[in-house]
Write a structure and sequence with these properties.
This protein has 94 residues and is an alpha+beta fold. It has a single domain, classed as Chitinase A, domain 3 (Roll), CATH 3.10.50.40. It is 29% helix and 33% strand. It has 3 helices and 4 strands, in the order E-H-H-E-H-E-E. Strands 2-1-4-3 form a 4-stranded antiparallel sheet. Strand 3 and strand 4 form a beta hairpin. It is globular, with a radius of gyration of 12 Å. It starts with a strand and ends with a strand. The relative contact order is 0.29.
Length: 94
């Protein structure tokens, strides 16, 4: 079976904003709610949910984290051409 992952993310324009949101999530704020409030990606409306995808479907910086980070642990800031992301892998098959 091919590798697959499901993830959600929050996209913002600055590293400072990304770190501030991450601190709030680590203090107990809900990731999905924070995505709805702050993410500039259309996926924010769905709590940042990106669905399932294979390696290579996302930009390389994103892919690297999604296919290596522990499931359920918020990662970031991850800088891409789009801005700064917080990522959470929600599921992964090896």
């Amino acid at each position: 079976m091919a590798k697959m992952a499901s993830a959600r993310h929050i996209l913002v324009s600055t590293e400072e904003e990304c770190n501030a949101i991450k601190a709030k999530i680590e203090a107990g704020d809900d990731f999905g709610y924070m995505a709805q409030q702050h993410s500039s990606c259309p996926s924010g409306r769905q709590g940042g949910e990106l669905g399932s995808f294979r390696p290579g479907a996302m930009v390389p910086e994103f892919d690297k984290v999604v296919f290596s980070a522990p499931v359920g642990v918020v990662q970031g800031p991850v800088k891409t051409q789009f801005g700064y992301h917080l990522l959470e892998v929600t599921e992964r098959t090896e």
